[in-house]
Write a structure and sequence with these properties.
The complex is a heterodimer.
Chain A lengths: L1 H28 L4 H5 L6 H11 L5 H13 L13 H36 L4 H15 L2 H15 L21 H34 L2 H8 L4 H29 L2 H7 L4 H10 L3 H29 L7
Helix pairs in contact in A: 1-13, 5-6, 5-8, 5-10, 5-12, 5-13, 6-8, 7-8, 7-11, 8-10, 10-13, 11-12, 12-13
Chain B lengths: L7 H5 L7 H10 L2 H18 L1 H4 L32 H37 L1 H15 L3 H11 L4 H28 L2 H8 L4 H37 L11 H8 L7 H29 L4
Classes of the chains: A mainly alpha, B mainly alpha.
């Protein structure tokens, strides 16, 4: 186990380096001179020369990359062209907001999906099972940016129950989920985000529980005279690690892919920041957000793997 | 007729041996749900292809005095958008762009990813490590993030969106075909083909591909729905198709401003995206069961 953990962590290092190369390379995807994307169209020649020196665009690529990597490793992601503030400061505020709604969404999705998926597995092939399977496919087929708009139509426009967008007067610094006045701003984003994980977790729970139920030991437990609830306890214990792993991955996807939902609700998270930065061609922020989100995703995957190996003794990796 | 005559009718009733594809077709013919959704896909495709025959209205012709007409207006059965353009015409023509954005990246990625995967799986060793480790790096990005970052940095537009989506789908398809190839490669019949002097190209074409295409095809079909959703999402963010081209994602984002005036109207393009993506998902699911591919 420890050997596996060590190897798994060491394996994440080259991946992280690869991720950094891609983030570094993003600048060169922009059409024209990489400096062109950093500068406003009316920049003077002196500004151009100054920035060329700062970014070192006149030096060979590997040197540029190494310099950039060294700066990133020391926590310096540069300054935002739009706001002038350090990119890292902007991202850390936004990341908290995104993690908060993503966590809420996955938690809600898991609690509903696990129950429904288990019920479906107990009724394989019946209309209950077909309904749950249909729901889970519908969940992953709904464009969530549209679902968000529909929620706004219903709850904000028609019934005026919940705010349509934003984060309330408190802003992200003193946001508290325990106060209704602030919590109500998070409800629609969380609901919208929970749709895809709901479908995915439901489907995985169904197949995991059905798998366990078809195993011999369940038959043995029943033959021994255990009640259905006691059998269910054993079944769930066996199916849970796999479902939790799926849930962890879904959390990673939500944090990384929050741009659409956050754009609809103007929720000040990393996705919203990224969307704004792309439209204003704020390259340091784009680079920084993509890098931080991808590294978060790598770390989430790593944690899911390690926790699953630790929790489930049947998985022997070496 | 005498008793001695051999009764041929009972003989023909003996189970016929079906080929693989015949049995897949047979199973599908009993799967009414999959057939229903396949029919919907066919309708969506046909209505997009034959859009000019289905409506005589120009989807890009604005009409300032007829803006945001509600659903059911005479002559404008699905209403008009924020510039007074006919919604039905825009939805029909929009299907062309949205379907293309769903299908083309998956097709390209299947070709490129499938090729890389077969090469990696067949060659093994250093080639395998080199290809698969690069794919691992792309795996480290959630798909939405990679698509947005790449198309955003390239400056948006339909072509850049297509390229970004293709890039997103190459790694998973490469991984699937690598796994399938590696599994088949060490089997006896491949060994036998090689021992009898077949070259690498001929082994791959005649013995490997037949076993790899099934899983790759099924996986690719499940990506179409993702691609439709992502492509419309890119347009929604302003990174895909550019106005005034009709596209479902773009229509959704433009109509969002009219949400307080006519909520039903804004929901329409989303319904089109939802039905298309749901149908592709259902058909892919049905195909997976009929072809009995486990993933």
């Amino acid at each position: 186990m420890w050997l596996y953990a060590l190897r798994r962590i060491l394996y994440a290092v080259p991946i992280a380096l690869g991720v950094s190369i891609i983030c570094f390379g993003l600048v060169f995807l922009a059409p024209g001179d990489p400096l062109g994307s950093l500068l406003p169209p009316d920049a003077s020649q002196a500004d151009i020369e100054y920035l060329r020196g700062v970014y070192g665009f006149d030096r060979p690529l590997p040197v540029q990359y190494f310099d950039w990597l060294m700066r990133v490793a020391s926590g310096d992601l540069g300054n935002s062209i739009q706001s002038g503030r350090p990119v890292l400061t902007e991202i850390s505020h936004a990341l908290m907001n995104t993690v908060m709604v993503s966590f809420g969404a996955v938690a809600i999705a898991f609690s509903i999906a696990f129950v429904l998926g288990t019920i479906a597995a107990y009724h394989l092939g019946t209309w209950v099972d077909r309904t749950v399977t249909g729901l889970s496919i519908a969940g992953v087929s709904v464009p969530n940016y549209w679902f968000g708009v529909v929620l706004v139509i219903v709850f904000a426009v028609e019934f005026n129950l919940l705010p349509a967008m934003g984060m309330g007067s408190g802003g992200s610094d003193n946001f508290s989920i325990f106060e209704w006045e602030q919590l109500k701003y998070a409800i629609l984003p969380i609901t919208t985000m929970s749709l895809v994980p709901l479908g995915v977790i439901m489907r995985n729970t169904r197949s995991a529980v059905a798998d366990v139920l078809s195993q011999d030991f369940v038959q043995a437990l029943r033959a021994k005279g255990l009640g259905e609830w006691a059998v269910a306890r054993h079944t769930i214990r066996n199916a849970l690690p796999q479902v939790l792993a799926v849930m962890g991955l879904q959390f990673g996807y939500l944090v990384g892919g929050s741009i659409l939902v956050e754009t609809i609700f103007n929720w000040p998270g990393t996705g919203f920041l990224l969307g704004k930065a792309i439209l204003t061609r704020d390259v340091p922020v784009v680079q920084g957000v993509v890098l931080v989100l991808a590294i978060c995703f790598v770390i989430t995957n790593l944690c899911v793997d390690l926790i699953q190996t630790a929790v489930d003794p049947r998985i022997k990796r070496g | 007729m005498t008793d001695a005559t051999f009764d041929t009718s009972s003989r023909s009733a003996a189970p016929r041996v079906r080929s693989y594809w015949q049995s897949v077709g047979h199973r599908l013919s009993y799967d009414h749900v999959t057939l229903l959704f396949a029919g919907i896909i066919l309708l969506v495709v046909l209505s997009a292809v034959f859009a000019p025959w289905l409506t005589s209205i120009d989807p890009n012709k604005p009409q300032m005095i007829a803006r945001l007409k509600p659903i059911g207006t005479a002559g404008r059965w699905l209403g008009t958008d924020e510039l007074g353009r006919d919604m039905l015409a825009r939805l029909l023509y929009g299907g062309r762009v949205s379907l293309a954005m769903g299908l083309v990246p998956v097709a390209l990625a299947t070709l490129i990813g499938g090729f890389l995967g077969v090469v990696a799986g067949y060659a093994g060793g250093f080639v395998n490590t080199a290809i698969m480790r690069v794919m691992d790096v792309f795996y480290a990005f959630p798909s939405v993030l990679l698509a947005v970052a790449v198309s955003g940095m390239m400056g948006g537009g339909m072509l850049n969106g297509l390229l970004a989506l293709t890039l997103v789908f190459i790694p998973p398809l490469c991984r699937i075909s690598e796994t399938a190839t590696a599994q088949v490669r060490s089997l006896d019949f491949v060994e036998a083909a090689r021992a009898s002097g077949a070259g690498m190209g001929s082994v791959i074409v005649h013995h490997i591909l037949g076993n790899v295409l099934g899983p790759v095809f099924i996986y690719a079909s499940s990506l179409i729905s993702v691609s439709v959703l992502l492509a419309a999402g890119l347009s929604f963010l302003g990174l895909g198709v550019e106005p005034p081209t009709p596209d479902w994602g773009l229509m959704l984002s433009a109509l969002r401003q009219a949400i307080y005036i006519d909520p039903m109207l804004c929901a329409l393009p989303g319904v089109a995206i939802f039905i298309t993506s749901l149908s592709f998902n259902m058909v892919s699911d049905g195909l997976r069961q009929a072809m009995d591919v486990r993933q």
